[in-house]
Every structure is written in structure tokens, then in C-alpha cells.
Amino acid sequence: MTGRKDADRRGDSGRKRKSAPLSSEAIVAAAIDLLDREGLDNFSIRNIAKALGVYPTALYWHVPSRHLLIARVIAALFADVLPEENADWRLWLKDLFRRYRDIVRAHPNVAPLVGGHLVSSASVDLNLVEAILSTLTRAGFEDEDLVAAYNSVVVGMCGYATQEFAHVFPDPERELETSLAASVEAADPARYPVLAAQRHRLLNRALVLRWKNGNQAPLESGFEMFTNSLIAGLAQELERARNRA
Amino acid sequence: MTGRKDADRRGDSGRKRKSAPLSSEAIVAAAIDLLDREGLDNFSIRNIAKALGVYPTALYWHVPSRHLLIARVIAALFADVLPEENADWRLWLKDLFRRYRDIVRAHPNVAPLVGGHLVSSASVDLNLVEAILSTLTRAGFEDEDLVAAYNSVVVGMCGYATQEFAHVFPDPERELETSLAASVEAADPARYPVLAAQRHRLLNRALVLRWKNGNQAPLESGFEMFTNSLIAGLAQELERARNRA
DNA sequence: ACCTGAACACCGTTCAAGT
DNA sequence: ACCTGAACACCGTTCAAGT
Questions:
Q1: Residue A176: CA atoms inside 13 Å, Cβ hemisphere, count?
Q2: To probe the interface with A, which of B125, B163, B237 has the most A CB atoms within 10 Å?
Q3: Is the pLDDT of residue A17 over 90?
Q4: Are A155 and B163 in contact (CB under 8 A)?
Q5: Tens digit of pLDDT for each residue in A155-183?
Q6: What is the pLDDT of residue A109?
Q7: What share of chain B has pLDDT > 90, as a percent?
Q8: Which of A121, A157, B48, B158 is the most exposed place for a label (fewest CB within 10 A)?
Q9: How far is CA A35 from each of CA A42, A77, A81, rounded to the nearest angstrom?
Q10: Which domains does chain A have, with CATH numbers?
């Protein structure tokens, strides 16, 4: 009898039913797993439930809504973005940008969920916010400039990876691929001289001119230039602010 | 008889039925209108069809899919981003960034659709691509550096506005607002000294620490610093590359 | 307390049928 | 050629019912 019950609990009927009870942590873990394996297009409450061997509505006991589940997923994934302390604020920022991008590289399908949505605010990591603020304060930014620099840093952190790992929509007939490749290949050198001359360097390596995202074709050199430029530029803005004062 | 037919065509049965026949342009226009009026959460093929007084499936004669409709919407909205020519490449870039952000300000709900999705590639404006490439070439970027600089510029163009006008998810109970405000208000000055000291300057004015987006609370000063920094930094990278050669 | 199960109000898209 | 209308395979979420 007891053996039978245990067998039932392990669930030979519901195929993937886990022995462990449901919890917010288990749901978030299953959500991340699903996102990594099946992509954004199959990322749904119902599929997470299926992976857990449970009814979709069961999740609502542990998680208030899809939006807030996504917020928890983001919080879990970026729990360790924060770099070691560094006396040089510019190196610290560079480190932060790198670490952020590395996480997105490891879970590329989350990119569209972080960039353009304010959900992230639902699970703010105050440690991250304070770390950026205190680093910029040590660098010399004050008051209004501090806020502006902080916003610049957050965009610098998320902006590149968001675009590098942008969502590629399902294209089974490869229509996007063929039409894009064709129009670039056929670009009139008279009208588009630089594009025509550099086309082989650009296809799938330049934003907007690609059908693969950073997953299959990373945009490494641009990341370096973008982050280096932004940081160097912030340092320069700081100088200017000092000279004003 | 003819009068009756005209009345039928104007459509007293289907309420909003337009007299004009359906077309790709009309659909895109209705889509933009719906996006502006009703927001991203109500932006669907079915609602666009309803606004046009037509069956949802009628759209598929003129538009291949939702993804590609979005691509056309984006193409239509950003048809005029391209700034006037400018001898100073840095001013030209600044102008480009401003114009891009102005368009997003005018149609803020499109922001999440542009930033994190590769759909935009389905409707590439080669003129824009060439303009950026030729400007950077005139500035002095070559070969691999040109690609890296181009990618930096595209991220610079889209990155800030994407986050400034990020999607705010429906929150009728104002849970996000209250919890975020509370946690920032209650931030321990010992653990979060800068955050605690600057909290009134930060709430709804610093990314991640807000429940409103740029629509209700623009992040103007950060935009200035971000774009100025990026451009100044690119100029500096250019100097470095020249010194290497 | 935690999960089932039915139900509601939505989606995008396919395809046969009408005109 | 262009639109209707039914149908399919999905969604997120609410809520009563079970245990």
C-alpha cells in the first residue's frame, strides 16, 4: 500500500511530475530551463507547468503573474552581475559591462525581456544600484550629473547585449535571410558605396544587417568599442564638469 | 439602387468599416494608430482588424504575418530618421540620436518592438545604414573598426530610448509603485549611503528605480550625457587607432 | 495550504468558401 | 482578387472544487 502511494507520488501517470513540491524557486528554475531550451516563443506559463508536470493554474499559488515571474527570472539570472571592487572606476564599469554581457550570452533568450520592459523594476537589486551610484560618486559625479551618469551606465550595461542578442523571429522559409542577403548583395555601389564595398564584412556582423543574432554570430569587437567609448566619454564629461566648477 | 449600394459600401452594418478598400498602407496606418492609442498590450492583429471594420483573417491577404507587419510599422515610423548632412560627423551623430529619440517619444509604445527584436532587419533602410557607414568612414574609421563603430552607433541610437520608453506592465493595484517606493524610501543609509542620500532625485528619474517610463517622466539629462559620452569616446578611439597606425 | 479542473476572454494563423 | 467565416492550436488568468 505505502509502496503504491510512493509510486503514485513519483507520478507514473503525469510523466514529468517532480517528487519535490512546487515552490517559487522551482518554478523560476524551470522557467529559466525552458527559456534556455525552447526559446522565447515557447516560453509560457502553460509550458512551464507542463515541464513541472503540473496544471498551469497551480503556478498561481506561488507566483502572482507572468510579468512578476519574469521579474524573478531576471533577478535570479543577474544575481551575480556585481563585479569585485576596483580602485579604478573605469575598470570597474568595464568589468560590470562584461559580466552583464556574459550572463546574457549564457541565457540569450532573456535579452528581449530585460531590455525593453520595465518589469525589471519589480525585482530591483539595490546592491547593484548602490554599487553603480557609489562608483560614480567616487569618480566625481554629483547630484544631477550623478543621475545622468547612472542612467548612461545602465544603458551601457544593457544596451549592447540587448541588441546583440535580439530576438530572431521564426522564419522557416528563410525569407528574411534570402531577402536581406539579396538586397545587400545587390546594393548599388553608386548609391551605397561603403555598404557595397564592405558587404562581406557587414553581413551578419553589423546590426540590422543580419538574420542571426549574437548567439550564432557574436559582435565582440563592437562591444569593446562601445563600452570603451562610453567609459572614456564619461571620463571626459567629468573633466568638463570639473572645469565648469 | 445606386444610392443604396453606396450606403452599403459605406457600411451601416459593420460599424467602422472604411469605404476605402484594404491595403498594406491602410493596415500599417491603423496599426500605428492602435499602438499609439491603446498601447502594446492591446496591439493585436484582431484589434487592428476591428479598427478597420474587417475580419482578422482579411489582413493576411495584404500582410504575411504579425512579425512582418511590425517590421513595416517600424519602417514607416522611422522613415525620416535620417538627419541633414553635416560636415562634423559628431554633430551628425548627435542629430541622428536626437531624431531617433524624438520619433520614439512620439510613438513610445513601439520602443519594446524595436530594441530587443531582430524584426527590424526585415525592413532595412539601406539609406540609413549607408549614411552611418559613410559618416564614420569620413570620420576616419576603417575596416574592422568601421564595423565596430557602426555597431556602437546603432546601439547608441536605439539603446537609450529603448530603456527610457520601456514597456510598463499593467499594474492596476499599483503594487510595483508601492513596493518600489517603499523599498527605496526604507533603504538603510548604512548599506546604501548614496541611494539613501539621493533618493528623491532618483525615484522615477533613474532607470530601474521607476514605475513610470519616459512617457510620463523623460530622462533628458541622461540622454545628453549618454550620447555626448559615446560620441566623444568614439572620437577618442579614433585618435588611438590613428596613433597605432 | 496547495493543487485540480473547468471556464473565460483572449491570441495568430490556415484554409475552404463565398463574391 | 479580395474578403468571410469556421476552425485549430495556442495564450494568461479567475475561481470553485477537491484533498
A1: 24
A2: B163
A3: no
A4: yes
A5: 999 999 999 999 998 888 888 899 999 99
A6: 97
A7: 81
A8: A121
A9: 8, 12, 19
A10: 19-64 (1.10.10.60)
